[in-house]
Each structure stands twice: as C-alpha cells, then as structure tokens.
Write a structure and sequence with these properties.
CATH superfamily of the largest domain: YVTN repeat-like/Quinoprotein amine dehydrogenase
Strand order of the largest sheet: 1-5-6-7-9-11-10
CATH topology of the largest domain: Methylamine Dehydrogenase, Chain H
Number of strands: 55
Organism: Microbacterium pullorum
CATH architecture of the largest domain: 7 Propeller
Structural class: mainly beta
Shape: globular
Number of helices: 10
Distance between the termini: 45 Å
Helix content: 10-25%
Oligomer: single chain
Protein name: PQQ-binding-like beta-propeller repeat protein
Largest sheet: 7 strands, mixed
C-alpha cells in the first residue's frame, strides 16, 4: 500500500488512480501528512470505547448536497449534525454528494455546518456531484478530506471507503482499483469488513459498470456490509454474503442512519436504524428499524458461488449453472448493457434443477453480434441472493469485423485524434499510444507515459505534432512520428479539455482551457495570452480566424479576440436561478462549432443555440441535450447533432430546421458520430458499446454489433477501412467496416 506522505507529495494521479490508502488508527494521526492535505480529519477513529463494552456505534449519512445559495438546506444540514453530535458516535461515514457541484464555497458551507467536536470523526467518500462538474474537484476533495479511497479499523471491524467515481462523468467504474481493494482485504485477514461508497451495487442498480468484477474480487473475503447513497431513498439488499443499505438523502430532510453493534452468543450484528428529526427541535425524533448486518455468516452465502455458462445458437441462449448448496432457485437474465446510470427491473427467467446443476434458455433473438453478459441469480431459503455474470460471444453476421485489440490501461475517456494514417489514443493511466493504420492492419509507432489524460489529444495543422492535455496540469507537445517530447507547459491546474489548433497566417495557435482559464500558445509552447473563463470549461474551443469561442461553467458562451485574448461578448444560454443550475444547464462540456454560415453553435443539456459571431445575437435555437457528443458536419447543408439520449438529428445549419430525426442508440455521452468518406456511412457508438450505421440521407439506422461490455465516452476515428474506438476498459480496438 502507498504511504500517506507519498500520496501527499506525489501529485494527483501519480500514486494510483485515486490514491487508495490503508489508514490504521495510528496512521490517521500522522500530523505531517495531514498538514500536506489541508483540513485533514484527525485521529479520532480507533477502538470502540470501553464504556460500551467495546461495542461499535456510528452514524451514516449521504447526499447532503451542500450549497451556500440554499439557505433552508444548509439549516437542515446544521440541524442534523447538531443532533448527531450528542449521540457521541465513534465516527460518521458520509457516502458522497457532499456538495452540489464540488466547488470551494460548497465545501466551506458544508464544513461550517459541522460542530467542531464532530469534524475530526467524519469519514468521507466522493459522489458524482463532487467529481462531475469541476476539473479540480478531485484535488479539492483531497485538500479538504484526504484520499478518496482508504481504509481504517475500529472496534474489530475493517472499514473501506471506495471511490468508483469517474472524472467528468456520471456513472461509476472500479477499474484498476480492484487490485488495491484485493490487497487491502488481504491485509485485513479474517476481520469482518464494511465498505462505504456513493453508488449502490448489484441487483437492479446499474450505476457502476463493473460492479460484477468487484463482487468477484471480494467474494473470498469476509465483506459483510455496504453503505451507499445516490438514489435518495432507503433501500436494503442482501446478496453475495453481505447486506447493502442505501441511505435516504439528508438533502431532503433531517435524516441519518444510526448504527449500533449488538453482540449475540452466535454473532456480532450491526443494527441500522433511520433517525428522522421532529418538525421542531423540541419534538422527539422518530426512529425506524432499517436492517441488521451480521458480521459472521453473511446472507446469500450458501446460495453461491454460482458457476455459469452460456452459448447462443440461432437466437437461443442455452444456459447451465452450478450454485451453492443452499440455493433453492436459480434464475437468469440478459444483462441490460444499454441501461446507464439507472435501475433495471428486467424479468428473471427461472432455470430447472437437475441433480446438482441448473439449466434453461433465454430468448437471444434480439441480441446483436458481439459480446454480451448473462446474469445468474441464486436464491437461498431466506430470500437472499448470489449474483454472478458470465460473457457470451454471439458470432452473427455484421457489416463490421473486429480485427485487433491493444490494451493501454486505465480508461480511454477522450476522443481519438487522427491525422492521415496516424491515430493517437490517451488514457487515464497516462499512457499515450500512436498507431499507423494501413488497410486492415495496425502498426505501433510509439508509446509514452505522461500524467492522466481524460480528454482528446490534437494534431498540429500539418500533422507533425501531437498536443496532449493532462490532469497533472501540463500540456505536452510530442513529435507525431516518434513521440519525442518537444515541450511541456505547466498550466497550473488540471488540463481536462481538448486542445483546439488553428492556422493563423500559416502559423499554428493552440487554444486550451484549464479550469477557469483559457490559454493561447504558439507552436513552440510560448504563452501568447491567458484569459478568464468563469468557473470552468471542459469541452473544446472553436475559432473563425478572428475570434475564439468557448463554453463556460457560468451558463454562458464566450467570444475572445484570437490575437490578444480580450473578451468580446458573452451569451447566457439559460435562465436558471442559481450558480449550480446555470452550470449544469450551460455549455461547460461542449465542443463549440463554427457553422458554414459563420454562426457559432453552443450546445447544452437543454438546447443548441446558433449565434452571430460578431455580436452573440441569437440566430436560431432547437431543443435537445446536444452538449456531450461532438457534432458532425456532413456537408455545407447538413449538420448531425446527437443527444445524450441517443437521438441523432440532421439539422439545416442556416435555419436550425430538422431534416430528419432518429433514435440511433439508447445513450450517447461524449462519443460522437464519424463518417466513412468512402461511402458516406455514419457510424456511432452508444455509451454501452453498441455500434450502429446511419444513412445520412434518410436517417435509417442499422444496428450492427455489440463490440464490448465496457462503457465508451470516446469519439472513434475512421482511417481507411478501419474504425478505431477506445473504451473505459482501457482497450483500443480496430474494426474493419
């Protein structure tokens, strides 16, 4: 495990993806390391106190959504913490969404609501609201609270904070953190473990794409409980030897969970109750039982493990499984790969028991060729479950043919950059890989290790240089043929936007946003100008040769003079009433487009707005959540816009009129369409890995292949006969089309 001093001095992303640390009660008191992180909670977590006979007592709350502009909410939060303090818990677990959008004032407002005597006992893990809308949010979380993944021991129980949040994205992914989790549980030995994180797992919860991999990782260990939030309601699930309790959100009212240990002759049990404060401080609180978490033998454990197999032939999935001795029923369903950040209550089809095994079939006639998951669920006599997933490869016919895979680690989250026959992919692991594509083959040109990359690289206008943005605060220029470093510029904050490169009189200008600043550099890396972008920009700028246009986190689109960076005008894209909503309903993550008419297109989660490049005056507006997927100009008269709900619209760039509209994929986040110049076909990857072909003349959609079971937020590239795509499993894939 990494020591705390190394994490504090090594920079975000250099130790591990999120800095997973094992923190014993002694380790929590290391003052020097604490100073390095800022207002680090102190060393109050330790053995349960003797006056309770060593029994644990602690509090769990979640989804406080602190926001200084929400006075009633902050008063409610202060009231909850004021009620928690006299309970004198050993510690408090916070399951994330501490603030509305991870800003400094939100964290400060949250801190101000907590009594001084309680602060050092609170343990936090981030939610999507801490990480989704601010490129510096992870660093800010670490300054306030320390690492986002860690563990500690208290009262003979091992507690683990897990962080599957993804930078600038909504859903969760454990990815490479699974190795750290396994190592931490190895060190804990036979001590019962309880995890806490933001997203609830398994069952109908589709918030973390690889929660099945987590369950496989922890299966050999004595993990008995999970506390979670996110869904803003109380929910209890018993599966795979553990009890999961999703807590009601404190944002909506005076709620928290009280957890006390009961020691029986046979077992130790954590008793979970929901406390609801009265309407007035003088009113007695209401206490309701929620769940009991046994620390000995966990629920559903005798139903598993499940060893399953699946094969598909002529549209029928034939299944077989061996379950645990306590299984009284085994059922199966096709994993809803297209469900994204939501719940799914699909039908479970019972299997038939024959001797010691179970068998049955599922209707697979609707499955595309490619890789799918099948879920098995074994049930014991108490109604507790054991879940297990297996993959099945459907070898049907499709227009596309997978040809090669190249693992580069981490998550390939940014769009791929292409020039001529060269494609460049970059990963959150820091690995940057360049390939030359010829026919159906690929040739590795070079690989480099930089800081974590979450957005696309960009080529110089002549294709000789690649500019790579990194979360380690740098923009690097690499020679495109061999990856050698030409220059590196430290921009003082994470660079989590895609560079835009413009030819100005035969000379390149590189414009890139880093947090609340917009920078313009020349081809040698010299800083030409720097301007403010209110709050942040995480998309990509555009230019008409005179002006630079960028979307900002204050809900506005901005124009700057390309020559000196002076602000020219701004346009408000929404009339939301507060800072938080202006941000999330604004163009903060938009790839800005300059249309053939000269108009500038800003997109948000509510609409696309074309404005005059000189004044910002609105020319046209259409409804739709077009912000995330980059637009594609088919010709001078057709612009394709893709909503996050997978609808592709063909738009007249002059008037904004829709020529056609089609449901192409279930969801599309940050991965936009690409066009095959050979035949005009438009290809689009859905977030869940579904590949479709679109006829740009009519909008007719042909669903082609389920390429992988990972999510993708990366716009692919098409070079000759090959479609190249990267996914959150860190694998770059080449497909002939």
């Amino acid at each position: 495990m990494t020591d705390l001093n190394a994490a504090a001095s090594g920079g975000v992303g250099r130790v591990s993806r999120r800095g997973f640390l094992g923190l014993s009660a002694l380790g929590l008191g290391v003052g020097a390391a604490a100073t390095g992180w800022g207002p680090w909670p102190g060393a109050a977590v330790g053995a349960a106190r003797a006056d309770d006979g060593g029994a644990l007592r602690f509090v769990v709350l979640t989804d406080t959504h602190a926001n200084e502009e929400e006075g009633e909410r902050m008063a409610n939060l202060a009231r909850v913490f004021a009620a928690v303090e006299p309970e004198d818990p050993d510690f408090v677990l916070h399951c994330g969404d501490i603030t509305d959008f991870g800003d400094e004032t939100g964290f400060a407002a949250y801190r101000a609501a907590i009594p001084a005597g309680l602060w050092s006992r609170i343990r936090h893990t981030p939610g999507n609201h801490e990480i989704r809308w601010d490129i510096t949010a992870r660093e800010r979380f670490q300054r306030w609270f320390g690492p986002t993944s860690y563990s500690f021991d208290a009262g003979g129980v091992h507690f683990m904070a897990l962080d599957p949040t993804q930078t600038l994205q909504e859903p969760g992914l454990f990815g490479g953190d699974l190795d750290d989790i396994r190592s931490d549980l190895d060190a804990a030995g036979d001590v019962p473990s309880v995890m806490f994180l933001h997203f609830p797992l398994a069952g109908r919860n589709h918030y973390v794409n690889d929660d099945d991999a987590l369950l496989q990782t922890i299966a050999p260990y004595r993990v008995r409980g999970i506390f979670a939030g996110h869904i803003h309601r109380s929910e209890v699930d018993r599966f795979n030897g553990l009890t999961q309790v999703a807590a009601i959100n404190t944002r909506s009212g005076p709620f928290y969970l009280r957890v006390t240990e009961r020691r029986d002759a046979e077992d130790r049990v954590l008793v979970v109750e929901q406390v609801t404060l009265g309407a007035l401080d003088t009113d007695a609180p209401t206490v309701q039982p929620v769940a009991e978490i046994p620390l000995g033998v966990g629920p559903g454990r005798t139903a598993g493990p499940v060893s399953g197999g699946a094969r598909i032939d002529r549209g029928t999935l034939t299944l077989s499984a061996v379950a645990g001795p306590g299984a009284v029923e085994v059922a199966a369903q096709i994993y809803a790969q297209d469900v994204f950040g939501a719940v799914f209550d699909g039908e479970w089809v019972p299997l038939t028991r024959t001797g010691g095994s179970w068998s049955g079939t599922l209707d697979g006639s609707a499955l595309l060729p490619g890789v799918h998951r099948v879920r098995f669920r074994a049930v014991d006599g108490t109604g507790a479950f054991w879940y297990e997933n297996v993959t099945v490869d459907h070898r049907g016919k499709s227009r596309s043919t997978p040809k090669w895979e190249l693992p580069i680690g981490g998550q390939i989250q940014g769009a791929l950059a292409a020039f001529g026959s060269t494609v460049v992919a970059a990963s959150s692991s820091g690995r940057v890989a360049a390939l030359r594509i010829t026919g159906a083959a690929r040739h590795r040109l070079w690989e480099r290790d930089l800081g974590p990359v979450h957005r696309a690289a960009a080529f110089s206008t002549d294709g000789t240089v690649v500019f790579v943005p990194s979360a380690d605060h740098t923009l690097s220029a690499l020679t495109a043929t061999n990856g050698q470093e030409r220059w590196v510029v430290d921009l003082g904050r994470p660079v989590l936007s895609t560079p835009a490169v413009f030819d100005v009189g035969g000379v390149d200008r590189i414009v890139v946003a880093a947090g609340d600043r917009l920078f313009c550099l020349d081809g040698a890396g010299a800083m030409l100008w720097e301007s403010e972008v209110p709050r942040l920009s995480a998309g990509r700028a555009a230019s008409d040769g005179q002006r630079v246009f960028v979307g900002a986190g204050d809900g506005r689109g901005y124009a700057y003079d390309l020559a000196d960076g002076s602000a020219l005008w701004s346009v408000l894209t929404n009339v939301r009433p507060d800072t938080y909503r202006q941000l999330i309903y604004g163009p903060w993550d938009d790839w800005i487009e300059v249309l053939p008419t000269g108009a500038v297109l800003f997109s948000t989660v509510a609409n696309a707005i074309a404005v005059d490049p000189e004044t910002g005056a609105e020319r046209w507006r259409i409804d739709g959540s077009y912000i995330f997927a980059p637009a594609l100009l088919i010709d001078e008269g057709t612009l394709l816009l893709t909503t996050e709900w997978g609808i592709v619209d063909a738009i007249d760039p002059v008037t904004g009129a829709r020529r056609w509209s089609t449901q192409a994929v279930p969801r599309a986040l940050n991965a936009g369409p690409v066009r095959d110049a050979r035949n005009g076909t438009v290809w689009l990857f859905g977030t869940g890995g579904r590949l479709v072909a679109i006829d740009p003349a009519t909008g007719a959609v042909t669903a082609d292949r389920q390429l992988f079971t990972a999510n993708t937020f990366s716009t692919p590239a098409i070079l000759g006969r090959q479609l190249i795509v990267g996914a959150q499993d860190g694998v770059l894939r080449g497909i002939t089309v």
